[in-house]
């Protein structure tokens, strides 16, 4: 039971780090890092994602530090591993969710709401809505902006937004998205 709880704590820790990395390394701090470069490119080219090799190289030290810290704090290799596996499982989920927001049409109401939250960050106000897998940290940190109708520039609109002729917003999404 202890390991399940620690794994769950790792899962809950990811959205906090997701928010902090995105907000501060991606937007607030004016330091030139690979993260900043790749993030800026993702904003400019909404269907661009950093190569998997970059993500693995960045994730490995985080995993090792997390594993080491939790192991030392709780004096248990199993505890460190359980927390780290939960954390990395959620990181992997984040990567898939973020990609799917850009690449695929939403299948659920929650998927649509989170997508609007994320795209309001991309297309309306990059100082707001830094969370991708959750809106909770934005609400706590005061950076939540309730997404209404998201105005998407035509030249970077995502293919799933369009109707069958590829010219207009799919009627299914007209209450949520507009072309600029």
Describe the structure.
The protein is mainly α and 180 residues long. The chain has one domain. The protein contains 6 helices and 2 strands, in the order ααααααββ. It has a two-stranded parallel ribbon with strand order 1-2. Helix 1 packs across helix 2 and helix 1 crosses helix 4. The longest helix is centred in the N-terminal third of the chain and has 27 residues. It is elongated, with a radius of gyration of 18 Å. It starts with a helix and ends with a strand. The relative contact order is 0.13. The mean pLDDT is 93.
Rg of Cα set: 18 Å
The secondary-structure element order is HHHHHHEE
Biggest beta-sheet profile: 2 strands, parallel
Given the structure, what is the number of helices? Answer: 6
In short:
With 180 residues, the chain is mostly helical.
Topology:
Elements lengths: L1 H27 L5 H11 L7 H23 L2 H27 L5 H15 L12 H6 L8 E3 L24 E3 L1
Parallel strand pairs: 1-2
Can you give keywords for this protein?
single chain; 180 residues; mainly alpha; two-stranded parallel ribbon; 61% helix; 3% strand
